[in-house]
Amino acid sequence: MTTYQPKPSWLKVRFPGGPNYLHLKSLMRQSTLHTVCEEAHCPNIGECWEAGTATFMILGDTCTRACGFCAVTSGRPLGLDWEEPVRVARAVQSLGLKHAVITSVNRDDQPDGGARVFATTIRWIRRLSPETTIEVLIPDFQGSAEALEVVMRARPDILNHNIETVPRLYMQVRHKARYDRSLELLKRAKTVNTDKLTKSGIMVGLGETYDEIIQVLDDLHASRCDIITIGQYLRPSAKHLPLVRYYDPVEFEELAAIGREKGFRHVEAGPLVRSSYHAERHAALRPDKAQLNIIDPTAL
């Protein structure tokens, strides 16, 4: 039986509400756009939006899956909005973003999982903001190699797909996903475009063991993944998976150091780290230089 875990004193989140935050929120509403920052209740929304960065969520706001950790609404989504890529590109242009992150809900109702909308969004951003680097955080497309190639042919600078958790917990955490399928996606992306960075992320605190985390790091490195993010699972509501335990900052330091030793080009680790946190730094990575970034929660 899982008991209640009191929030540690060092786990602090900035309350949103600064002028840049309010401007960005207004722009999103005017453009009828969604962000994963809002839909997934990201704890970093105050910091990131005040800095003028956001992760756009395309393909609507309703996911065809219901993962046990995720706050995004699940159900039967509406049809595709082919004007959405243009609106995203104009928002990127209006904000003057140097790095844009695009993610989506799962669209298992679509034959290509929404891959063409991803590709169209990338191309529109390139057209309107040619100097902007682009990162896409994609679903698994149910293992479709063709869908992945549609996205990769649009040549995003970073291809991100989160592994999320250890294999043993997949049925509880990502019951419609497959661990091996996600690893294969990352391998295939590197094969299609060898010069593009690949990235993945894992949450801790769901009941995994330390050895299981290390095995995931080994599997990701074997899949030629360049960048890894490691963050604390925070339960969005009582209906979501229970939190088993909090990892303290020292443990995140240890995991980050292990990731660097294993050869990842960049490791972003900390209690509030999410896959798009400090994403603009990842786009500037050099292939021959490993980097380590440990996030101190008391500094947020």
State the gist of this model:
The protein is of the alpha/beta class. It has helices at 19-30, 36-39, 45-50, 84-95, 115-128, 145-153, 170-173, 179-192, 210-222, 249-262, 279-282, and strands at 34-35, 55-58, 99-104, 133-137, 158-160, 197-204, 227-232, 266-270, 291-294.
What descriptive keywords fit this protein?
single chain, 300 residues, alpha/beta, TIM Barrel, nine-stranded mixed beta sheet, 14% strand, globular
How is this structure best described in words?
The chain has 300 residues and is an alpha/beta fold. The protein is 35% helix and 14% strand. The chain has a single domain (19-299), classed as Aldolase class I (TIM Barrel, Alpha-Beta Barrel). A nine-stranded mixed sheet has the order 1-2-3-4-5-6-7-8-9. α9 links the parallel β6 (197-204) and β7 (227-232). α4 (84-95) packs parallel to α5 (115-128), α5 packs parallel to α6 (145-153) and α9 runs parallel beside α10 (249-262). Mean pLDDT is 84; it is low at 287-292 and 294-300.
Biggest sheet architecture:
9 strands, mixed
| Named CATH architecture | Alpha-Beta Barrel
Q: How many structural domains does the protein architecture include?
A: 1
CATH class: Alpha Beta
SSE blueprint:
Blueprint: H1 19-30, E1 34-35, H2 36-39, H3 45-50, E2 55-58, H4 84-95, E3 99-104, H5 115-128, E4 133-137, H6 145-153, E5 158-160, H7 170-173, H8 179-192, E6 197-204, H9 210-222, E7 227-232, H10 249-262, E8 266-270, H11 279-282, E9 291-294
Parallel strand pairs: 2-3, 3-4, 4-5, 5-6, 6-7, 7-8, 8-9
Antiparallel strand pairs: 1-2
